[in-house]
Amino acid sequence: MKRLWMSLMLWMLLLVAGCSSWEKAYEEAGSASLTVMALKGPGALGLVKAMEPGLDPPVRLGDTVYYSFEEDEATLYAKLSEGKADIAVVPTEIAAKLYHEGAGYQLAAVNTGGYLYMLSTDNAIKEVADLRGKVITIAGEKSRAEVVIRRLLERSGLNTDADVTLTYASSSETAVENAANSELILLAEPWVTDLLGENDDFAIALDIQDEWMQVNGNGMSLPLTCLIVKKEIPIDRAEEWGLFVADYKDSIDWINSNPAETTELVDKHEMGITKEQAEGVISRSNLIYLDAASSKSAVEEYLNLFLEANPDAINGSLPDDAFYLEQE
Fold first, then answer.
1. Strand order in 105-112's β-sheet?
2. DSSP E strand stretches across 190-248
3. Contact 117/192 with Cβ under 8 angstroms?
């Protein structure tokens, strides 16, 4: 309660003083401030309304939460391995690896239902089976995009070594830049939006989330990213944690209901999405809040892909039940 009181007092002081320097505010807040770290991109998008205490619905924790965004996964992983954030938004396989390595985080919720799409210059591609005999460009060997498409191909009766050819771009940016040399490209947002905006020859042929739901039959699309929290936070700072979760849920709901207004907010915060990309990214990122208990089966199904295809990505095994935060 003392920490919560300090947080609320700081918020009031910021409103009165008109302080625009977040860094100074957080420094003064000290241990009363929750710290949140996220990988730039669609996973971070759901936080943007929670960073705007002046918009309705009011942000319960005001300006007392410190947000930071990392450009690359390696930097994010290194910082979280050292416990440098109370709460984080990360790729789900990274959450599993952090857990195995004793970083002290638990999965609290899945926050996106997937944002992978197959783009094609061939309008005859209507289902995964139509990929037989095709060459597919993927950004990154053993990437999450590759492990997902391999499972979809197998479930559709295609041999991934004989019936299709997978080629690899060094990065998503490279795949978009060299799109003229490809007929089919598997991309995540925001690069889907980039390619559609830059090359009129391409259109979305397959929504990978829809295809995933069809082959798995669990009604849950791809849990590509998740919200994790230090295991002591929901216990030692339960009231603040509850307020943060409520603010975060409100933020996601507001974004899904107000995509045009969200584009203006995205432009203010460096979260790896430009104002020009925002509308497409919002519409195709499937922002959700699905708590650990409700998402556990979908998360395990997804992590199993890495266990089979790239076990090092999750440190060699599925997390046990303690990985999933129990809801009070």
1. 65-70, 34-39, 87-91, 225-230, 105-112, 287-291
2. 203-207, 225-230
3. yes
Let me know: does 184 contact 135? Beta carbons within 8 Å.
yes
Take residue 144 and report the two structure tokens written for it. 């999450």
Return the CATH fold of 2-113+223-315: D-Maltodextrin-Binding Protein; domain 2 (3.40.190)
Q: What is the pLDDT of residues 182-229, one digit of tens each?
A: 999 999 999 999 999 999 999 999 999 999 998 887 677 899 999 999
User: What pLDDT, on a 0 to 100 scale, did the predictor assign at position 32?
Assistant: 58
Domain 116-216 falls in which CATH fold?
A: D-Maltodextrin-Binding Protein; domain 2 (3.40.190)
Residue type, 324: Y
Domain ranges of the chain: 2-113+223-315, 116-216
The 10s digit of each residue's pLDDT in 96-141 is 999 999 999 999 999 999 999 999 999 999 999 999 999 999 999 9
- Phi, psi of 111, rounded to the nearest 5 degrees: -115, -5
Structure token pair of residue 54: 């002046």
Cα dihedral 11, 261, 66, 288 sign: positive
Token pair in block for residue 1: 């309660």
The owner of tokens 């003064």 is 28
- Assess whether the previous peptide bond of 57 is cis (omega < 30° from 0): yes
Handedness of CA 244, 35, 107, 187 (dihedral sign): positive
